[in-house]
């Protein structure tokens, strides 16, 4: 198959992990006889430096005409306090590609049990997925502004349609998995959460095979530590999803392991690791490339329906971990620390 | 000393744990020669049942003329879907007493190490305190409403003054402890967080002895699991504080252990456990009374400056745990399960 991919390495460790992902894609091309036409474009801080804008229109246009988009990470202290912020580029591309559902799987890797802060018996069988609303809620709604020196406001607004589409996606995913869906809200305080809960209850009628549970966000934050194995699919508002999915990364032991797929109703999906640009280790060949590589596997599976190829990558990741190759964020007592490039070498070799 | 206390048992396990707290207060009265004039008033679901309102004006008036207020918990399935909700009573009393700073200490109890989902070496030395903004932010600001069937909105608004007073409180607490303050926000996305961060940076100039760090809320949710020992004082917005403090309760092993104090610039403080009304175990004499009892100790210390009395209660809690008396939420392999009343018996006996 021939596919067009726009690649947005971004800032910090973004370019390093993206380089790894592209090497893995080359290996997939060779082994499975595909052709991936890759175009690299700037976003975030790099784009601000080059064009003055965190998301130049050329970048957006290129993304829109591709089959899928890979993104590394954006941001860094260099752009702190500037009027244009790298993160605006990330928020904007999510909005402009209309990728309203952000899928973040969290699965315990058996070989990483020792590095999780949670007790081993609690994480053994964890295999859950967040469906985070990504283009609305507290992140985007207006008014969102400063009034003089004294006041500031952000808005948590949802239209029923925005909730419906992401909740439907979550029900579909739950139906294809264990059939359990947890909807997280703060319906005892927020009006938007009451609407959210109503929509979930209505949608539930169309998915009689899915068991739905509502959980308050404070309780969910607690339950994810207390007993993460109770969850299968978790659907929630943008900001709640941001907080809870980062928290849940500790089940795997490192944010560096987590992949994500952001999907729209039609149009290209956006695939990015959950970790950020990690300026402190950028340029040192020390970043964990697995979150980016696993995001690439999600792209192959969800956008290109290349299930064997995605399986092969995920399997290689397991094997490399089992063989005790580790970057410093997932350090084990058994092996030495590998560089980003060495981790990718090991993946490709498998 | 003579003090007037308004007691709001509320719903669910509220009355049971409050009964325990009052028995402890009686013991303190007898041992230290104080007189506590206690008036019980309805709030939450109980108040809705009796008066139609979750916070009757008689309850509020009684609170305002007391030296301090003790609150159990509110809410339960009985009032679900009703127009008036028990939680409105809780939110309103916080607002009307103007208790803008909610202090939630989280300390690992050595004898509870085995019940925490976190690995023992991570929680050993945890001793942190949340300062949660409690009368503003996403919980209270207008507009907060439903528009027809289709749309809903909540508002995250702050005036600089609202941020200043709670941040000042947090700096004072940090100065009296290890001198480290972590301010949690989402300044890369929210305008209100940018204002928050500015206020923190300005206030820092008046507290040169306090080391300030800013942390994004998603990262904070992760760090509280990864390495909770790094924190001393954490100050944050109302909703962020709700989520993060419930999450952090897992350090102690149970929400049932956590106490809180909500304070204003002047006027009575409001003391309540962090746990909710736990309708599933209500009326069974099974609730953990320690969160409520420790909240009562906070009242003695902060509102009445009775430090010896507060110390005595906190010591008794330690001893009872060391002697392996446990309610089911903090069950250990070593002892049998005690009832709420038995736990209180043990406390009083010490
Ligand atoms: C960088 C930031 C704007 C972003 C977010 O909050 O969505 C990140 O934390 C994430 O989760 O992808
Ligand atoms: C009951 C609820 C409204 C309340 C809150 O969210 O503040 C509770 O969760 C708390 O933390 O005290």
From TrEMBL, chains A, B:
Residues reported in the UniProt entry to bind substrate: 94, 104, 132, 218
Pfam families found in the cross-reference section: Iso_dh
Keyword vocabulary terms for this entry: Amino-acid biosynthesis, Branched-chain amino acid biosynthesis, Cytoplasm, Leucine biosynthesis, Magnesium, Manganese, Metal-binding, NAD, Oxidoreductase
InterPro entries membership: IsoCit/isopropylmalate_DH_CS, IsoPropMal-DH-like_dom, Isopropylmalate_DH
Cofactor note: Binds 1 Mg(2+) or Mn(2+) ion per subunit.
Compartments, as annotated in UniProt: Cytoplasm
Catalytic reaction annotation: (2R,3S)-3-isopropylmalate + NAD(+) = 4-methyl-2-oxopentanoate + CO2 + NADH
Cofactor: Mg(2+); Mn(2+)
Entry annotated with the keyword Oxidoreductase: yes
Entry binding sites for NAD(+): 276-288
Similarity annotation: Belongs to the isocitrate and isopropylmalate dehydrogenases family. LeuB type 1 subfamily.
NCBIfam families on file: leuB
PANTHER family in the record: 3-ISOPROPYLMALATE DEHYDROGENASE (PTHR42979:SF1)
Protein name per UniProt: 3-isopropylmalate dehydrogenase
Source species: Fictibacillus solisalsi
């Amino acid at each position: 198959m021939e596919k067009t991919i726009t690649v947005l390495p971004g800032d910090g460790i973004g370019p390093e992990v993206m380089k790894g992902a592209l090497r893995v894609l080359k290996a997939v091309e060779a082994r499975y006889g595909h052709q991936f036409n890759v175009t690299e474009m700037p976003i975030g801080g790099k784009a601000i430096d080059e064009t003055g804008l965190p998301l130049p229109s050329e970048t957006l246009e290129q993304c829109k005409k591709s089959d899928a988009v890979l993104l590394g990470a954006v941001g860094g202290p260099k752009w702190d306090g500037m009027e244009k912020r790298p993160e605006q580029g990330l928020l904007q591309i999510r909005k402009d590609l209309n990728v309203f559902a952000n899928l973040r799987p969290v699965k315990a890797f058996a070989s990483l049990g020792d590095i999780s802060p949670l007790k081993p018996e609690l994480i053994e069988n964890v295999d859950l997925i967040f469906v985070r609303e990504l283009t609305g809620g507290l992140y985007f709604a207006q008014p969102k502004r400063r009034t003089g020196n004294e006041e500031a406001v952000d808005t948590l607004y949802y239209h029923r349609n925005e909730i419906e589409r992401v909740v439907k996606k979550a029900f579909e995913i739950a139906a294809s998995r264990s059939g359990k869906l947890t909807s997280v809200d703060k319906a005892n305080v927020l009006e938007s959460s009451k609407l959210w809960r109503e929509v979930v209850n209505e949608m539930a009628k169309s998915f009689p095979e899915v068991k739905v549970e509502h959980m308050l966000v404070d309780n969910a934050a607690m339950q994810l530590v207390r007993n993460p194995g109770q969850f299968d699919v978790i659907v929630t508002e943008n900001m709640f999803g941001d907080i809870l999915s980062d928290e849940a990364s500790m089940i795997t032991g490192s944010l560096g392991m987590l992949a994500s797929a952001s999907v729209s109703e039609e149009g290209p999906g956006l695939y990015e690791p959950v970790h950020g640009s990690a300026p402190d280790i950028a340029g040192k060949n020390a970043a964990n490339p697995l979150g980016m590589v696993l995001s690439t596997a999600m792209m192959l599976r969800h956008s290109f329906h290349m299930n064997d190829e995605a399986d092969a990558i995920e399997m290689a990741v397991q094997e490399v971990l089992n063989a005790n190759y580790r970057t410093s964020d997932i350090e084990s007592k058994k092996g030495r620390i590998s560089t980003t490039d060495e981790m990718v070498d090991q993946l490709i070799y498998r």
